[in-house]
C-alpha cells in the first residue's frame, strides 16, 4: 500500500510573530498554538482546515536578495473573502491603489485573485478558477 500525503503546513518567517498572529486573526484565522503569550517565537493559526505556522527569523535571514515565499489559497468566492478581510481590518480598501493585485481581478491565466503581504512580507494569494 502506498503512503499518502495528508496535508501541508507552510512555515512562514516573521521578525514579529505576535504581529503576524494578530494580522492572521484579522483575516479570520484562529490561534492553535503560541509558544509564549507575550513574545512568541513560534505560533500556529488555522482557518477552514488550513494551518499556517509562523516562526521567528531575524531580518538578516530574509532581506534582499533572499526571496519570500508565496502561499496560494484556493477559495470559494474571491470577492467575498476580500470584503471579509477588509471588514475584519486585515486588509485596507483595495480601491486605494498600491499593488495591481490588491483588488480582486480576472487574470490572463484563467483565475480571479488578489494578493496581500503579511507582516513578515510573505505573499498571500487568494484565487479561484474562472
List descriptors:
alpha/beta, 2,3-Dihydroxybiphenyl 1,2-Dioxygenase, domain 1, 4-stranded mixed beta sheet, 130 residues, 2 helices
Topology, please?
Layout: E1 11-14, H1 17-26, E2 30-34, E3 42-47, E4 50-56, E5 70-74, H2 78-87, E6 105-106, E7 111-117, E8 123-129
Parallel strand pairs: 1-4, 5-8
Antiparallel strand pairs: 2-3, 3-4, 6-7, 7-8
Describe the overall structure.
Helix content is 15%, strand content 33%. By secondary structure, it is α/β, with parallel strands linked by helices. The chain has one domain (11-59, 68-129): 2,3-Dihydroxybiphenyl 1,2-Dioxygenase, domain 1 (Roll), CATH 3.10.180. The strands form two sheets. Strands 1-4-3-2 form a four-stranded mixed β-sheet, covered by helices on one side. It has a four-stranded mixed β-sheet with strand order 5-8-7-6, covered by helices on one side.
Amino acid at each position: 500500500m502506498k503512503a499518502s500525503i495528508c496535508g501541508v503546513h507552510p512555515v512562514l518567517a516573521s521578525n514579529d510573530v505576535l504581529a503576524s498572529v494578530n494580522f492572521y486573526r484579522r483575516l479570520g484565522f484562529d490561534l492553535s498554538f503560541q509558544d509564549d503569550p507575550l513574545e512568541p517565537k513560534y505560533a500556529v493559526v488555522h482557518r477552514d482546515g488550513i494551518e499556517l505556522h509562523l516562526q521567528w527569523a531575524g531580518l538578516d535571514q530574509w532581506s534582499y536578495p533572499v526571496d519570500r515565499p508565496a502561499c496560494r489559497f484556493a477559495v470559494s468566492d474571491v470577492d467575498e473573502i476580500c470584503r471579509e478581510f477588509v471588514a475584519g481590518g486585515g486588509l485596507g480598501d483595495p480601491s486605494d491603489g498600491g499593488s495591481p493585485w490588491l483588488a480582486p481581478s480576472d487574470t490572463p491565466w484563467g483565475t480571479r485573485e488578489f494578493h496581500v503581504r503579511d507582516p513578515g512580507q510573505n505573499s498571500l494569494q487568494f484565487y479561484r478558477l474562472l
